[in-house]
Amino acid sequence: MPTTRPFLTRPRPAPAWLGSIPPAVPEFVMGVVGRIPPLRTLVSRLAINSFAYAVAPRPRPLSMVSPYTSWKSLTDRTFTGRHLPPADAEWKAKLPSEAEVVALYKRETFTPSTDTSVLFSMFAQWFTDSFLRTDPFDPRKNTSNHEIDLCQIYGLSEAKTDLLRLKSPDAGTRGRLRSQLIDGQEFPDFLFEPGRTPGTRPTIKAQFKDLHDESWLLDVILAGAPDDRLDQVFAVGLEHGNSTIGNTIMNTVFLREHNRVAGLIEAAHGDWDDDRVFQTARNVVIVLLLHLVVEEYIKHIAPFEMPLETVKFIADGQRWNRSNWIAIEFNLLYRWHPLVPDAIGTGPDAIDADGMRNNNPLVIEAGIESLISRCSNARAGKIGLGNTPWFLVDRSDPARPSVEERTVHISRVAELRSFNEYREAFGQKKLASFDDLTSDPQLRTTLSAMYGGDIDQLEWYVGIFAEEYPSYMMMGELLSTMVACDAFTQALTNPLLGRHVYGPDAFSPEGLDVIETTKTLHQIVRRNCPPGSNVECSFRL
């Protein structure tokens, strides 16, 4: 294998400060930075650009379409992108079996995170499922819009958005998404016709017929859902929108926020028609999500919860400001299955694995404020090998691979290169041995045996979860860098954040005020819960 490759050429070296911050650095220093706006903006700008330039910016010469550059590989975004070319045949031939790799992930005993709540893991899944959309029939391809566009509540196309809108010309209801009141609380409309005989196949309501592929939804996604929960499946933007209580909670929160913002805009602009109110409210709520992703979500991932802000117009003029195109590595590195606990809470009120999935009745009965508080006070798992819950590793249906089996298989289909090659590509020093990877003697022995004692043989998908990290970090050095690089360059290139777009014309003065005064998910949740609700909402315990 050659020692130099053109794909490793970067415009500038990536900084190595992320993994070298000494544990003695106190968190109050970050707090001081966060309280001084000019300093916070400067630190945010430096951090964002440092990660954004960690690897050569888009366009990438290759995608999953072929191992060589072509017009199709440069333009056809139905094929997932890739950071590095496919691995060599000789290296691939030495890899352990997929079954051996899957076994590395299975949890025997739950290892908790240092300070991450279950709410973070729920938000992460809901957020990433909107753009990390692997084609179920061809793992080289995707069904993604490649944007952070809140398709979770708006759908993947304008045609699907139209199905989810109320579309009312009447004053007091313009610009809203379809919803219903249940015990005085707003939720999405139900997807299926009422009055179903228990045990029979649900019927999608006429107004939602073209929202999802019916056979895929009923025969695959909802195949394992208990019969008594099917009647309370909501009509939302994505097929998996009801698959976990976290998805349902987040969809409900942001649907309520959209309708609340639409009400503010309509009240201030009585001459605006339904479409203008809707489109303006959608612009506002998408930008609210972008702000949360940078200032709360990525902030929590960063060491010491670095005070990051969505620096206005930072992408304008930067070489990383290119059209979004999800890479296969970004898709796979976000498989943070270890975050999922065996149960939320303890005792008789604990929510087990079955209770977390396909369980809208629980969300309706308990209320989103109660569940958000419970999830904010429950500890997520620690990211790493040996900590993925059994129901994501073992097959419940012998004919269908588990989530982790599918993930490992996709990594092999993608022919991803070694862990060390990705470290080098992202400006990090290659590891010399398994001793540099982890101090766990059992894990070192296991991995060394699986990969012939050669750290250069260690595959990337295993390495990013095996890499040891200090308690003030949430994941290993390479994984942190790759997450930040892709997240910043995908989120901050959103057209709504452009210099000539961002402003009152796109959001209305009222909507712009909502954006500028909203800093946390807690604010959004609180103003969309019943008055007087005492809700806790935090990614950090």
Low-confidence stretches: 1-15
Distance between the termini: 46 Å
User: Which CATH C-level class is it?
Assistant: Mainly Alpha
Summarize the main sheet.
Answer: 2 strands, antiparallel
Mean pLDDT: 92
Helix proportion range = 40-55%
- Backbone structural class: mainly alpha
Proportion of beta-strand residues = under 5%
Main sheet: which strands, in order across? 1-6
What would the keywords be for this entry?
single chain; 541 residues; mainly alpha; Myeloperoxidase, subunit C; two-stranded antiparallel ribbon; 24 helices; disordered N terminus
Describe the protein's topology:
Layout: H1 27-35, H2 37-52, H3 71-75, H4 89-93, H5 98-103, E1 112-117, H6 118-128, H7 151-154, H8 158-164, E2 179-182, E3 185-188, H9 214-221, H10 245-268, H11 274-301, H12 328-333, E4 343-344, E5 351-352, H13 353-356, H14 360-366, H15 368-376, E6 379-381, H16 390-393, H17 403-413, H18 419-425, H19 434-437, H20 441-450, H21 460-466, H22 477-491, H23 504-517, H24 521-526
